[in-house]
TrEMBL record:
This is Uncharacterized protein. The chain crosses the membrane at residues 6-24. It comes from Hypericibacter adhaerens. It comes from the Bacteria. Keywords: Membrane, Transmembrane, Transmembrane helix.
Length: 101
C-alpha cells in the first residue's frame, strides 16, 4: 500500500521545507527592522521634545530673573467689540472702547 518515497520526492520535500523556513526568516527580519525603525523614530521625537523643553527653560529663567511674574489676570469683555481684555492692559483698539480712557 505505502512504498518508500523515491529520491526525487524526498529532495522536493526538503526544498519546499527550506523555502518555507527561509521565507519565515525573511518575514521575521522585516518585522524586526520595522519595529526598530519605529522605536528609533520615537526616541528621536522624544529627544527633540526634550531639546525644545530645555531651550524653553532658560528663557523662562531669564524672564524670572528680569522680574517678570507669572500671574493670572482677570479678563473683562469689551462692550463695543466683545473681545476679552485683561484688566489694566488698556484699550482693545476699537473706537469707543471703554478701557481706552
Amino acid at each position: 500500500m505505502f512504498s518508500m518515497p523515491g529520491l526525487p520526492k524526498i529532495l522536493v520535500l526538503i526544498i519546499i521545507i527550506v523555502v518555507i523556513w527561509q521565507a519565515f526568516k525573511i518575514i521575521g527580519r522585516v518585522q524586526k527592522a520595522r519595529i526598530e525603525e519605529a522605536q528609533a523614530r520615537a526616541r528621536e521625537a522624544q529627544a527633540q521634545a526634550r531639546g525644545q523643553r530645555q531651550t524653553a527653560r532658560p528663557q523662562g529663567a531669564a524672564n524670572r530673573a528680569a522680574g517678570a511674574r507669572n500671574t493670572v489676570s482677570e479678563t473683562l469683555e469689551c462692550r463695543v467689540c466683545g473681545a476679552y481684555v485683561a484688566r489694566g492692559m488698556g484699550a482693545c483698539g476699537k473706537p469707543g472702547c471703554p478701557f481706552g480712557a
